[in-house]
Structure formats: structure tokens, C-alpha cells
Amino acid sequence: MKVAVLDIKGKETGRKAELADDVFKIEPNEHAIYLDVKQYLAHQRQGTHKAKERAEIAGSTRKIKKQKGTGTARAGSIKSPIFRGGGRIFGPRPKDYTQKLNKNVKRLARKSALSLKSQANAITVVEDFSFDTPKTRDFIDVLKALGLEDKKSLIVLGEQNNSVYLSSRNFKGAEVVTNTELSTYKIMNANNVVLTEGALEGIAANLNK
Question: Where is this region: Disordered (predicted)?
Fold first, then answer.
């Protein structure tokens, strides 16, 4: 499948880019997308939540009142969960939320996500570009020229480019990644995916290993 290559002013360069059919034109597997997005979100959780339980509370172990004759229930420790300042019953403990997912399933998920974007005409190919100095205004001008200033966009570069990356950091409507950082979640989370010419070959190579 061939698409027109645009420059950063939104005009056609006269060149065509080849989008590999085995990456951008497959039958999307929605379950694979679900599994990969679920794993990505699970990996964002730190799992450092912790509440002190009865044995971890600092406090006296003295029996706080006599066993009988008070007219109230027995109580043996001020650290009991029924008292204010006591330990928490079944409180959260540190947990590892990471999940395992087969590499082939992850590749299928990314191919499916890119194919869905392709079907929705939400993929734009631009020539490789850079800025002399990092400047948010220049980055926004590129998005405006492509008609994407009001859309959540994902810009995929062929290799790390600090001037483009730093120019995008203050703009919440777009994210810049390299082809090796591409994930199913980021593709699905964007309204439009902008691929540079340099990223196309890397994407095909990564997803067809």
C-alpha cells in the first residue's frame, strides 16, 4: 500500500511511501490488542502501596484494661484494628503487577493497532525533519500544517532526535517516540499516527523478526 509523503508544511513532496501489507493491512486481532494494552497499563503501576498491620504498629503491648467487670468487650492491645491508631485489617501490601506476554502476541497487537489506524485513514507519512534549536512553537507549526493541532497525535521517528523531542515536551497534544519505543497502547491512544520516512523501515523490521 502506497501513501503520499508530505513535508513539514503539509504539502506533498511527490514521493510515495510503501506501507507493508503484513504490518499495515492485516486483519486486526482485537484480543491481542486488549492483552498488550492490559500488560502496558499493569506495568505502569509501581506496586509500592503499603499499610501497617497490627504487628507493625508502634505502641504499648500492655493490656489496656482488666479482662472482666468493665461491662464492655475484652481488649488486650492498643494496637488492635478496632481502636483509632491501630493497625489496618488486611491492608494493601507491596505487589508486583508485571504480566508476561508472548512476543508474537505483542507483535500481532502492534500490527493490528497500525492496521486499524490505516483502515481509519489515521496514518500520515512525512519526510524526516529536525529543528535547529528546540522550540515548541516550531513543533506546533508542523502539527498545524498537517491539520493535527487539535488531535491527539503520535509522532514516530526513525532515530532519537533531541531537538524534535524537546520541542514536543511542553505540548500535551502530541507525543514523540522512536520506532523502537512504539507500543500498542500509544498507537491506540492517539487519534492520528505520524510516521517519518526513516521510521517505516524500522517498524517493518521490528515487527517481522
Answer: 50-77
